[in-house]
Amino acid sequence: MNITIFDPRGIKSDDYRHRFPELERTKEFDNLTSRHLIFIWWYANQSSPLVLEEHDNYERVKEALSRSGFNPSKVEKERLLSLQFDSATAVAIKRMSEFDPGARFKSYLMVKKIFDQYQFIIDQGPEAFKESTTKGEGDKAVTTIEIDYKKYVDISAKVANEITNLLVKLEEGFAVVNVSGEEIKEDESTALRDWQMQKDSK
User: Fold this and answer.
1) Could you give the CA distance from residue 166 to residue 115 in angstroms, rounded to a whole number?
2) Using one digit for the tens of pLDDT, what is the confidence trace for 136-173?
């Protein structure tokens, strides 16, 4: 299964952070221009085609510069092409490489399930909170069914309080842009992260 997150393709560079509000909240990206951040995505994000397909760091930097439209000064470009990253770029690369596509997709599905279950509870109404009580034994046993209205009211209030936060998470979608392919590879995102860490340690 191929999962793409924070994908800048098809988005104007100036709109990139607005499209993914989480990027605006990530302090490691604060001092980067939009095109610089997009360069970081191409170079380091686990779901970037270059990370998946281009294992040569030098070639990946070159291609990331081209695809991102990032045009640094001549001196900075030479440093990037020689893999001599300044501290801000190095920190941003590390943070961008840590975003886990698989975990984010699972998180989205979990929140969606919670949202759907809340809707089911509300649709059922008080009838969902029936409780049966049996008194006596054998032929003399008497079972009564009552609705726990207090529990219904309490849970309804909880849903009302939490629904806004759930909606924000669903709308942002954990930055998942695309999910394709039918083959599910176990721990795919973890394998990608391990590859990145091994490569960086060389």
Assistant:
1) 7
2) 787 777 878 888 888 889 999 999 999 999 999 988 89
pTM of the complete model beyond 0.90: no
Length of the chain: 202
How far apart, in Å, are the Cα atoms of 51 and each of 44, 55, 160?
A: 6, 7, 42
Q: Tokens 């998180």 appear where?
A: 107
Indicate the residue type of 175: A
> Environment class of residue 196 by beta-carbon count within 10 Å: exposed (0-12), middle (13-18) or buried (19+)?
middle
Domain ranges for the chain, please list them. Answer: 2-99+176-200, 103-172
Q: What is the DSSP string of 163-179?
A: HHHHHHHHHHGGGEEEE
